[in-house]
Each structure stands twice: as C-alpha cells, then as structure tokens.
Backbone:
C-alpha cells in the first residue's frame, strides 16, 4: 500500500512540474486554454463555432478520453494519407483546437509520418490550426481546403513561401466542394 502512495505522489509531482507546453490535451482530462495553445487558435475556434451554428459543418459528437483520441488518430491518419503523395519534404505541426491536441507531420523521410500528442512547436515552425469537424468535412469531400482557409476554419502560420506551399498541398489534396459534382 505504501509503494502505491509513493508512486502516486511521484506521478503527481511529475505531472504538476511539467511545462505547460508538454501537458496533456483535452483527451487526457486536461482543460484546454485556447489562448495559450496558439495565438491563432481563438479566431479559428470562433470561425468553427459560427460554421457549426450556421449548419455549414457537422459538429462531431463529443468523445472523452481514449474514444476521442482514437477518433482524432483516425482523422489525422486520413489527413496523412491524403497529403502523402504531395507533401513529401514538408514538415508542419497541426493543432486540433477542440482537444488542444498537437500532432507533427514529417515528410522528410521515405514517407509522410504523423506523430500525435507532441509538444507545441517553436514559434518559427510551420503550424496548421483547425478543428475536428473541419477535418471530417475535408476527408469526406464536403469541404475544400480553399473554402476552409477563406472561411478561417483553417489557419496556416509560416513564412510566405512555406504557407503558399502548404496551401497548395492542402488545396490539391482537398479540392473545392461542389454540390453539382457530388
């Protein structure tokens, strides 16, 4: 019994002393503070909220813990597959604003890889900020990347050249949605 109390105390100290940038996301039961997640996350969150209210996007059912993390993992894998043929040599971090989950995409090796639950990137790294409902609409073909960018549902933070390349990759992977074409 004493050993478990020591282990619990040790874990509490480790978690409590962790840097805010490496703490868990909403799927870990942690509260998400959009203002510290990324400076652009609040405006993206508001745009997504407005799109949900206007019924332009379908709001995903809130899932807690491992269920939510698994859905996010599946969604980010679908994103990876869609971007893989065109994003070789690219690297960027992605923030899912609802859970405050950071993922890192790295196409500098033989294939595009995604790593979930990573620390927030440095200020000078390429960042994509969006939400689960936006990714769902993109991978289902119900929204094009250009439409999402214009509506503020996705924001890309990078140098001008890097942002143009990211935008071109996403636009190619997720072409404009057309009611007639579907």
Residues:
């Amino acid at each position: 019994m004493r050993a478990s109390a020591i282990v619990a105390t040790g874990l509490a100290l480790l978690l409590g002393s962790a840097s805010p940038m490496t703490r868990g996301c909403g799927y870990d039961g942690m509260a998400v503070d959009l203002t510290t997640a990324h400076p652009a996350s609040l405006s993206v969150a508001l745009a997504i909220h407005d799109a949900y209210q206007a019924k332009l996007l379908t709001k995903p059912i809130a899932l807690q813990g491992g269920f939510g993390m698994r859905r996010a993992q599946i969604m980010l894998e679908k994103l990876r597959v869609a971007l893989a043929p065109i994003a070789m040599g690219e690297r960027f971090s992605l923030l899912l604003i609802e859970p405050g989950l950071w993922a890192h995409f790295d196409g500098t090796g033989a294939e595009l890889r995604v790593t979930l639950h990573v620390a927030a990137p440095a200020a000078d790294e390429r960042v994509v900020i969006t939400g689960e409902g936006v990714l769902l609409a993109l991978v289902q073909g119900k929204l094009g990347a250009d439409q999402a960018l214009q509506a503020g549902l996705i924001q890309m933070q990078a140098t001008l050249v890097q942002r143009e390349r990211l935008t071109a990759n996403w636009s190619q992977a997720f072409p404009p949605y057309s009611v007639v074409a579907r």
